[in-house]
Write a structure and sequence with these properties.
Chain B: It is a multi-pass membrane protein. The complex is a heterodimer of chains A (310) and B (281). Chain A is mainly alpha-helical. Chain A is 74% helix and 1% strand. About 2% of the residues of chain A have low confidence. Chain B has 281 residues and is an all-alpha fold. Chain B is globular. The chains are: A mainly alpha (310), B mainly alpha (281).
Chain lengths: 310, 281
Amino acid sequence: MPDRKRQAHYFSKRRNYKAMNKKLFAPFFFVGPHLILFLIFILIPTIYGIYASFTQWNLMNDPVWIGLANYKTILFDSSSTFHTQFFNGLKNTLLFVVISVPLLIVIPLLVAVALEHKKVKLKGVIQSIIYIPGLISISAAALIWLLIFNKQLGITGNVFHSQVAWAATQPYAWIIIFVITVWGGVGGNMIIYRASIAGVSKELYEAAEIDGAGSVRRFFSITLPSINFPLIYTFVMTTAGAFNVFGQPLMMTDGGPRQSTHVLMMYIRQLAFGQGESIAGMASAMAVLLGLVILVISALQYYVMNRNTR
Amino acid sequence: MSKKVSISKYIAYLFLIVLCVIWVIPVVFGITTSFRSQTEVVSSGFRLFPKEWIFENYVAILENTSTAPILRWLFNSVFIAVSHTLLVIVIISLTGYGYSRMNFKGRDTLFFTLLGISFFPGVVNIIPSYKIIDAFGWVNTSWAMIIPGLAGMGNIFLVRQFMKGIPGELDESARVDGAGDFRIYFSIILPLIKPVLIVCGLFSFVGSWNDFLWPVIVYTDVDKMPITAGLLLLQDIYGNYRMIGQLMGSAMLAIIPTLLLFAFAQKYFIQSINLNSGIKG
């Protein structure tokens, strides 16, 4: 304990000062740690990432400002490998998004609706089975699925007598990427839809049933409109996630055959962290372009879907 | 009418059963193959269960401590995921309290500014993040995976929403009794937000355990990496499917922790969703 006399002496003088200090200190105690983390690991890297895209940078020395040169090369210089890589990566990423996103919306929705059926039993067990692959890491899942699709040793070869080298032949290389994506990705959205459908008023369904509306009709005129917010939410989030696809093609096909499943994220990692000298400036420019594509598409999705449901 | 119900019932069942079979096969196949001998895998065509259950694959996996130190990887993963989860819980509860319970100038402006910035696609910050981790000397250490993820806004948003549902009279009366912010946070708010903290903690654990892109970038030292990055190496080490049983056994060891977590905390995994759909209101 500090000396009592001294304390009393300070007390009156310091009261206001202390109260003010406390007013600033207390919020900082609660919000400050995260604020610092946010600055260091989100704000600064994001700004620096944009800045780096205008530079030549090898991750070791200081970046050298070169203006729009990286973007010019990537977008317009058709003799450059960066140009070919970027557009090949973008094409493959878009292909992945366009096919995987509808699957990751429609299948979970169908499962949720089927599970909502009054007569279906063991709902909890079925739900768990479909949810569990979402808890498995892509690297572990890929080892198993690759074995299943192995020509000599797997299930496809031995049971279905398929003589295809799946990972090395198109369109099979894409098919195994979609299989593992759907397998791992259905559970999360399914749970969101189930909870949303459970929240729709039962009376609506009963009234519709009395009016003679079949189950298909009920799905389109009651279920779908009632869960429109979760639908927009999952649509935007699933799409943004799909643009960041990396693990599935890396593990399943390593970008092959002939780079036909090589997605943008893989090129970005390869340029920045791959063998040889890092080309981080160029990789940053690709990352910024990919980020812009994601932003524009998310905004469009949100705008269009929100307008159509109003 | 009743006939119609039964037809739709069979369609629903058929769809769900087919899906469940497809969903279960890889896991069952992975488990059983990890107990098969290499000669059986190569020779006998497909059978769901092994002719003879053997444990040699697991013995061999655990004995290989040089090229594929799987126990080391599992330990790294556990250390990373547990530390990350605990820190997440501390940070999001403190920060959530700050942004929903305290009054300071520009509080909501600050919160929504951060939230807005965090929507900016994360691809852009990966390369500089690596540079920052490098500057801290964290490359090839567990900190590289424990700390950066704490900066996210998603969980804080959920906790803040949840706290807004707790009536303000509770803290008012405590304040009258002379309790300060820290007391209110610790003895009133913290017990009440336990459910949302558990949910965020579970998802942080699973997310950290299964993270793939970041560890592949940050770790080059075989002894320091978590299991997800380790499994990528295994493809080469047990290469070309010459040691399938060991490959499968390793994959099984990697998925056990999250599946155990699910087995014990299933209701929280399923509950999370109410939080998600709660975003609307």
